[in-house]
Structure formats: structure tokens, C-alpha cells
Amino acid sequence: MALEAEFLLAGRLILGILFLYNGYNHFADFESRKGYAEYKGTPMPGFAVIASGVILVLGALGIMLGIYPVIAAGALATFLIVASPLFHDFWNAGEEEKENELNHFLKNVGLLGGTLVLLSTGSEAWTYAVGIGLF
After folding, report:
1. Residue environment code for 11-50, b if the CB has 16+ CB neighbours within 10 A, otherwise e
2. What DSSP state is assigned to residue 126?
3. 93 DSSP 8-state letter
4. CA angle 102, 104, 106 (to 5 degrees)
5. Sign of the C-alpha dihedral, residues 62, 67, 69, 71?
6. I want to staple 76 with a disulfide (CB 3.0 to 4.6 A). Which of 30, 109, 114, 115 is the partner?
7. Residue 67 pairs with which residues in a beta bridge?
8. 111: closest CA among 63, 42, 67, 71?
């Protein structure tokens, strides 16, 4: 297909913007995020919010710019694998929260699929990318 590189770039940018926005919110809305992490029983919630914000921002920039794409996509996939069942445990939610938590969980599963697709192509040279990587 003649537009493969453009579709890959568009997908990287769209996915990256979402992760970048969420990472930014870990810092801009720190107290609220920390409170939610405390509510969910996260050890060292302040550190966890900052660390996950850094992962989200750097992972987003990595996939958007094509800088260490395997590490970036792998870090985002790992974040989603860990955070989704811990923070969106719809199976433990009350009736009024269950649907919202299920929607967030399923959204994260979809995002995980996107990061895994990028991870699978990370060893290939991406057009429209800085091109710094492990391979």
C-alpha cells in the first residue's frame, strides 16, 4: 500500500497524543491522582504517580518521534498491563462504578493492543521518525 508510512505516522501521533495528555495530567493533577492511587492501595502513591507520569510522557514521545520505539512501546504496554487491573478493577467495583471502570479497563485493553502493534514493528525502520533505536 502506498500510504503505509503515513498511516503508521498518523497512528503513532494519535496514540502518542493520548498517552502524552495522560502523562501530563499525572503532573498537572498530581494531588487528585495521588489520592486515587492511595484509594486503590498503591504503595508510595506520590512516587507511583510521578513515575507513571514519566513513563507515559517519555513513552509517548518515543512512539511519536521514533526514538527507541521498542523501549517506548514496551514501557507503555507494561504500564497498561500493570495499571489496568489495579486501577480499573470493575469486578470489585460497586454497582454505580462498575460500568465506568469496565469502560476504562476495556479502553486500556484497546490501547494495549495499539502498543503491542507498535512493539511488533519497533525493530523495523519507521518512515517519518528520528530513527534512534536498539536495532
Report:
1. ebbebbeebbebbeebeeeeeebbeebeeeebeebeebbb
2. P
3. S
4. 65
5. negative
6. 115
7. 132
8. 63
On whether the CB atoms of residues 46 and 36 are closer than 8 A, the answer is no
Q: How would DSSP label each residue in 99-112?
A: HHHHHHHHHHHHHH
Digitized pLDDT (tens) for each residue of the chain, 135 residues in all:
589 999 999 999 999 999 999 999 999 999 999 999 999 999 999 999 999 999 999 999 999 999 999 999 999 999 999 999 999 999 999 999 999 999 999 999 999 999 999 999 988 999 999 989 887
